[in-house]
């Protein structure tokens, strides 16, 4: 059951994982690493299952939505300002999805799945480095 719940979470899609990784965990000096000690679990009985802040997840989702909107006509259309006014409905919708998952029928698995999201975002860099090495890509290419 937990495996299906994790796979069904919309925040675990590669695009969102990539955005979070690139924004917060892309190198050893990134802010995610700098402030990793401040990340906490939502559960007192699972303190080792640290999770990403909700706002980080919502912002990544809003970024993915904005990127999709830029290509919705089949051609790239430069977006207007990335502003609260323009993305408020998207942000609010993402908040509702996250809250439904946190408080829904599978709520007991929520912290574990959000911890898995955290692990995916920080491990992505290791995977990218390993893949570049295997394919002999120059390190500055990505």
Automatic annotation (TrEMBL):
InterPro entries: DUF6532. It holds the Pfam family DUF6532. Residues 9-99 form the DUF6532 domain. This is DUF6532 domain-containing protein.
């Amino acid at each position: 059951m937990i495996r299906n719940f994790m796979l069904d979470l919309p925040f675990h899609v590669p695009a969102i994982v990539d955005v979070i990784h690139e924004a917060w965990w892309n190198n050893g000096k990134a802010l995610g690493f700098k402030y990793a000690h401040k990340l906490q679990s939502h559960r007192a009985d699972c303190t080792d299952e640290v999770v990403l802040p909700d706002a980080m997840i919502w912002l990544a989702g809003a970024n993915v939505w904005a990127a999709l909107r830029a290509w919705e006509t089949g051609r790239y259309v430069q977006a207007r300002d990335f502003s609260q006014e323009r993305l408020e409905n998207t942000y609010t919708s993402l908040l509702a999805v996250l809250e439904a998952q946190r408080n829904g029928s599978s709520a007991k698995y929520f912290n574990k799945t959000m911890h898995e999201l955290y692990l995916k975002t920080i491990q992505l860099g290791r995977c990218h480095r390993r893949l570049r090495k295997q394919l002999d890509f120059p390190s500055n290419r990505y």
